[in-house]
Amino acid sequence: MRVSNVTVRKRLTVALVVGILIFFVIDIRLGYVQFFLGNTLTDGAKELWSRDIPFEPERGEIVDRNGVPLATNISAPTVYVVPRQVKDPDGTAEKLAALLNTSKEQVKKEITQIKSIVTLKKGRKISHEKAKELRAMNLKGVYIAEDSKRHYPFGNYLSHVLGFAGIDNQGLMGLELYYDKELKGKKGSVKFYANAKGERMNDMADDYEPPVDGMDLKLTIDSKVQTIMERELDIAQAEYNPDGIIAIAMNPNNGEILAMSSRPTFDPADFGKVAPEIYNRNLPIWSTFEPGSTFKIITLAAALEEGKVDLKKDHFHDPGYVKVGGARLRCWKKGGHGSQSFLEVVQNSCNPGFVELGERLGKETLFKYIRDFGFGEKTGIDLQGEGTGILFNLDRVGPVEQATTAFGQGVSVTPIQQVAAISAAINGGTLYTPYVAKELIDPRTGEVVMRKTPSAKRKVISIETSDQIRNALESVVAQGTGGKAFIDGYRMGGKTGTAQKAQGGRYLENNHIVSFIGFAPADDPELVVYVAVDNPKGTLQFGGTVAAPIVGKIMEDSLRSMGIQPRKGQIDKKLKWPDVPLIEVPDLVGITKKELGELYINLKIDASGEGNTVVKQTPEPGIKLKEGSTIRLYFDNE
Question: What residue ranges in 206-350 does DSSP mark as E strands?
Fold first, then answer.
C-alpha cells in the first residue's frame, strides 16, 4: 500500500521531535552529571582507586608545672605493604623476615592477604636504622610511614600517675587514659592511587592530609619535689624492705598534688615486665587500710569545733587502758601516760584520751565530722581507680566501734582522703578536691584551652579551730611522738600513725602500716606530705620511728626547693639522745669584727666582704640552729 507524502512528512516530524526530546533529556542528564554530580563521582572513583598510608599524630606531651617533660614521643617508623603491588611474594617475605626478626612464612601470609593495604605486625614502630635498611632494599609494594611511640624520660618516676600508652598510642592507664581524648590527636595520611590490579597510577598526584597533634597536658606536679620523694622512697625501700610504700605531697590551700609515688613501681615504657596488679593499682588513691593515729586529727578537730575540750586546761588520766562496752582498749604505752593535759594527749598520741573525746562528741556528731571531712566517698581526684574506703553504718556503731573509730581503728580510708582531710584541718577549714592536671595547651598556638582551678567542696571547721589544730600538731613534732620529723629552723606540724593489718577477720602480729603526715610552715602551711610504709622489716614498727624521718627529709629539701625560708617562732624541741641543743641565731648586723671576737657563739662563721662591720647575715636573727652550724656574715664599711 502506497503511503502519501503527507503521512511520511508527519512521521518524520514526529520522529524528529521525539529524537530532539531524547537528545534534550540526554543533554540535560549529561549536564547534570557533569556539573552537579561530577565532583561526587570523581571523588567516588578516586576513593576506589586510592590507597591510604596513615600518618599518626604526635600524642600530646605531659609536662610538670614548670614545663619539664614527663611523657614525650620519639619517632618510630611503621612498615605498610600493598599486597597487589608485590611482584615477588617469596623474595619480599624473605627479605622482610630477615630484617624484622620474624619467620618468612608469617610475613608471606600477611603480604598475600586480599586487602588493599596491610600493616606488618613486626613492622610497627621499628628503629630508624631498620627503616633505612628497608628503604635501601627498594621493595615493590613496601612503604614506610612516619610514626611515633611514647617515651618516659625519667623511667619509673611518677609511673602510676602518668600511666602508659599502648602500641597504638592509646592511653591505657593513669593520666594517659584519663585524658586520652585530649592527648591522642587526629590521624593524617598520604593517599596514592592504584588501578584494579593494584598498580600505582603515576599520572595522578598523591594527596597528603596532615595529622593533628594532641593537646599538651601541664600538671600540678613539681618535678623537684617529685625527685626528692622518689629518692627518699628508694632509700626506705633499701633500708626496710617493706611490702609497700605510699607517699603524697599536696598544697593544702588549693588541692594541687605536687608529688605522688609508691612502691613497688614499674617503667611505663616496659610495663609488661611486671604483674598487672602492680601497674593497675595506684596505691595512694586505690588502697584502703586502717589509718591509725593520723585519724585522731579528725576527732581532735570535731572536739575543738564543738567546744568539747580545752587542750591546756582540761586534764585526763591514762592508766594504760580504757574499758568500753566490756572491751579493754589499750594505749600503745604500757602502763599509760598518767595525768596529762589534752595537749599532752595529742602529743603522746594517747588512745584512751581520744576515746574520751569520742565519748564527749557522741557517735552522731563524730561520724558527721568524719563524713564532712570527706571520708566514705571519693575525693574526685582526676585519676582512674580511686577507692572510697569503708565506714561503719551509724546504726551498727556501738560503744566499742565509736571508741576505736575515735583513734583510727576499725575504719578503712585511702591515703588521698587523709591528705585532703588533714589539709582541710590545717588550712583554715576548707575541704578541697585534689587534682593533678593543671592545663591543656594547644601545641601549635600555645593557647591554653583548659585550665583547672581549685574546687572547694565545703567549709568543715572554723579558722579558730584550724589555728588550734596547727599549734597542737606543731607541738607533736617538737615535743611529742613526731620528733624525728623535726626540721631545724622550719616550723613543722604533724601526726604519727601505727595501724595493725587485718587478715581473715584477725589482726596480724608484728605487721603494721606505719605512717606520718606533716605540714609546714606550721603557722601558714604551704606543703603537706604523707608517707605510709607497709610492714617495714628489721625495725620497730612505729610511725614515729620509720615514717616520720622520711617525711622530715622530704619536707626539708622540698621546702628549700620551693624557695620557702625558715621562720622565727619555732617551738623548742624536746631533746632526746643523741639530739644536739639548738641555738637561737643572734642579731649580728652592725657589730664590728672586734666585737664579734668578744662574743661567745657556738656557731661557725663563714665571712665574706672587705669591710669591718656586719651588714647582712644568713640566716636571719631568731632562727634556731644546731650547735656548730654555719652562719654567713657579710662585711662592709658603713
Answer: 207-209, 216-219, 244-250, 257-263, 315-318, 321-324, 327-330, 338-341
The predicted structure's pLDDT at residue 499: 86
Q: Within this chain, do residues 32 and 74 fall inside the same structural domain, yes or no?
A: no
CA distance 609 to 406: 58
List the catalytic residues. Answer: 293
For residues 470 and 252, the answer to whether their CB atoms sit within 8 Å is no
Residue 569 lies in a domain: no
Residues 497 and 419: beta-carbon distance below 8 Å: no
Please give the pLDDT value at position 563. Answer: 93
In a domain? residue 456: yes
Both 400 and 506 in a single domain?
Answer: yes
Same domain, 235 and 361: yes
Cβ atoms of 495 and 345 closer than 8 Å: no
Domain shared by 326 and 405, yes or no:
yes
Cα of 589 vs its chain's centroid, Å: 46
Looking at residue 49, what is its pLDDT?
A: 47
Q: How many domains does the chain have?
A: 4
Q: In DSSP terms, which residues pair with 151 in a beta bridge?
A: 72
Listed range (61-75, 318-332, 353-367, 588-602) with the worst mean pLDDT: 588-602
Quick check: 517 and 294 in contact, CB under 8 A? yes
The cell numbers describing 298, all together, are 579528725
d(CA 557, CA 568): 19
DSSP 122: G
Least confident interval from 57-61, 124-128, 257-261, 386-390: 124-128
Assigned domain for 557 exists? yes
Judge if 402 and 435 occupy the same domain.
yes
Distance of CA 484 to CAs 90, 222, 476, 494, Å?
72, 25, 10, 11
pLDDT band at 314 (very low <50, low <70, confident <90, very high): very high
Angle at 382 between CA 377 and CA 387, to 5 degrees: 35
Q: What is the pLDDT of residues 451-490, one digit of tens each?
A: 999 999 999 999 999 999 999 999 999 888 888 999 888 9
Cα torsion for 405, 387, 435, 303, to the nearest 10°?
Answer: -10
User: pLDDT, tens digit, for every residue of 263-273?
Assistant: 999 999 889 88
Q: Is the pLDDT of residue 292 over 50?
A: yes
Please say whether the dihedral angle defined by the alpha carbons of residues 360, 361, 367 and 369, taken in this order, is positive or negative: negative
Q: Residue 307 burial by CB count (10 A; 0-12/13-18/19+): exposed, middle or buried?
A: exposed
Instruction: Give φ, ψ of 494 to 5 degrees.
Output: 175, 180
Domain around 366: 223-268+277-561
Is-contact 249 423, C-beta < 8 A? no
CATH number at residue 171: 3.90.1310.10
* 56 and 180, same domain (yes or no): yes
Predicted TM-score (pTM) of this structure: 0.79
